[in-house]
Amino acid sequence: MNNLNKEKAKKKIKALREKIRKAEYRYFVLDDPQISDAEFDKLMQDLLKLESQFPELVTADSPTQRVGGEVLDEFEKVEHSTEMLSLDNSFNAEELRGFDQRVKKNTTERDYQYIVEHKIDGLSAVIRYQGGSFQLGATRGNGEVGENITENMKTIRSLPLKIEDKAELELRGEIYLSKSEFERINEKRLENEKKPFANPRNAAAGSVRQLDSKIAASRRLSILIYDLISHSNREFETHLEVFAYLEEQGFNVNWHKKADDIGKVIEICQEWEEKRESLDFEIDGLVVKINNLNLREELGSTARSPRWAIAYKFPAQQKTTRVKSIEISLGRTGALTPTAVLEPVEIAGSTVSRATLHNEDEIKRKDIRIGDIVLVQKAGDVIPEVVKVIKEKRDGCEKEFEMPDHCPVCGTKVKRPEGEAVTRCTNISCPAQRKEKILHFVSRDAMNIEGVGPALVDQLLENDLIDDYGDLYFLKKHHLQNLERMGEKSSQNVIDAIKQSKDREFFRVIYALGIRHVGLGAARTLSDNYSSISQLMEASNEELEEIDEIGPVIADSIIDFFAEKQNRDLISRLRQAGINLSRENTEEKEKFLEGLKFVFTGSLNDFTRSEVKDLVEKAGGRSVSSVSSKTDYLVIGDNPGSKYQKAQELGIKILSESEFKELLENKEEK
Ligand code: AMP
Ligand code: ZN
């Protein structure tokens, strides 16, 4: 075998790969294998052997790359080309009709059809192909920026690593675990004395976010494709055409059916409500989309969701179980929220062991007692709720619940203001509130500080390293390194992440402050109306109320927030730390790299990856993870990877580390 020449090996490798690809397609996409598992294994063994003899012939799209192997330190960030929006929900026929009415209101077009699809209960993914090869897979993340999960997605056998079309494509699909695979994984976990996953979705999420792609490979994930976001040289008129094209390219496409009017849509939705159990994967509803792509464009989207699609969610599922106890947890506004601790029960494929009880009145109204048998309901990803008590099952041992009169965390006397349903701890330095406020501040939609989670915040508070979120910006690496479970690297990562958050958009900062009733939407409105935090702090109640979408409750709450000296001090500290506290700042920064795409490969001497990324992004450029014809610069450090060769092939401008520095310096002088 050793003297097998390279040319021959090349041919043989090519033939084996084609056979394997075909077999994978027959097995994982068509579910109609034509060769036995043993034959398949043999082909794979032969290919692996040849590739190990001629490592230079291994390509990224070879079927052998599906077994995983690479272990990452962290996932790279990927900016989405188009924001990944949510879907509006509907729960019954009437709401579907309402959706159709809104479509009619927004267009004069009357000749349109709908496509109804399964709404798979998994994780959405963005998938890019280039030159016929799978290039990149990314999670949804916050809709604008996701994580690069390419290595893990390569292990998904129904996702072709190679396709016929050489164009640049961007697709969307849903990654999921079949019910049977989910059971297999959980059985294995039980054998190994590991905690089983609560449902297929959680298991899929855990697998997709594995830094070790070997683990992901062992989980046998699946994918169904449901959209084409862009194609570099072809236009499509309808969603059906898109599906036909995707099918032709060998993708496992989502189930879909055309409906000529909303009546037919409703029929299909009701039909699947009964048939959903027959599928080997979980769906939590259906998605209804306009078929005509021009009309989609005409209808457009709101900030949250497209106007041309709606999700139809199946009704909630209900089960009975026993209330073991009622626990109190504290939110960031000091609200004491009672939660029922339940005897674990399976509802709609997941184990439910807690249900929210909202507040004291709710418990009284439903007369929920400790020990009661209750009907619990779960709808989609909403927190489970107690529907009612099964009173016939009472035996007299049930205990009535009483709201504590002191905060269970700090012991301060709690208050329930007249006319309000919520009982609160009024101690603004209550540790529970402090913790929740900090967690809100660092959360994804707010300052998005990765690595600062509940455990670290506990440690920071306990060690008196911080009192509030403003203190985060004054932490030093040595503070963190002295904490348990914090190494040098993770400490540096946390410090970097905190530093990076200083440039968040102004509306995110407003939201992060944690002003009661000011959600992300209200924060956006405020940032549209006030260009800086000082302006907002000076706003009067009347002025605030004049803004559409800001009602008296929100206005009062904003006034109260800034009236508090502690909060004003906090703002000064944020200013001192250099947090972006105005809209202008975000807009007027010098953007001398505006629109330019950078890719980095190899190790740089003077920067970490997150530092260069930061620099590029601050100057308006983008740092992306893979080379394409749209890349403007490839910056190479020591030991550059395959991106280098690729960039050369594509004729992309290549910069050394020192040339990159020059680029930054020259432009900055201007
Ligand atoms: P939601 O998270 O409820 O707003 O719904 C939007 C999510 O539904 C998307 O991010 C996808 O993950 C998921 N989804 C599942 N199936 C589909 C489908 N056929 N079309 C579009 N989105 C889908
Ligand atoms: Zn308290």
Description:
The chain has 670 residues and is of the alpha+beta class. The protein folds into five domains: 6-58, Orthogonal Bundle (Helix Hairpins); 89-313, 2-Layer Sandwich (D-amino Acid Aminotransferase, Chain A, domain 1); 318-400, Nucleic acid-binding proteins (OB fold (Dihydrolipoamide Acetyltransferase, E2P), Beta Barrel), CATH 2.40.50.140; 431-585, DNA polymerase, domain 1 (Orthogonal Bundle), CATH 1.10.150.20; 589-669, 3-Layer(aba) Sandwich (Rossmann fold). It is 38% helix and 19% strand. It contains 25 helices and 22 strands. The protein has a five-stranded mixed beta sheet. Strands 14-13-12-15-16 form a five-stranded antiparallel beta sheet. The protein has a four-stranded antiparallel beta sheet with strand order 5-4-7-8. Helix 24 links the parallel strand 21 and strand 22. Helix 1 runs antiparallel to helix 2, helix 12 crosses helix 13 (454-462) and helix 16 crosses helix 17 (520-529). The radius of gyration is 28 Å and the shape is globular. The N and C termini lie far apart (63 Å). Residues 407, 409-410, 412, 425, 427, 430, 432 line the site of zinc ion. Residues 86-87, 117-120, 124, 140, 174, 226, 254, 287, 311 line the site of adenosine monophosphate. It is an enzyme of class 6 (ligase). One of its GO terms (molecular function) is metal ion binding. It comes from Halanaerobium hydrogeniformans.
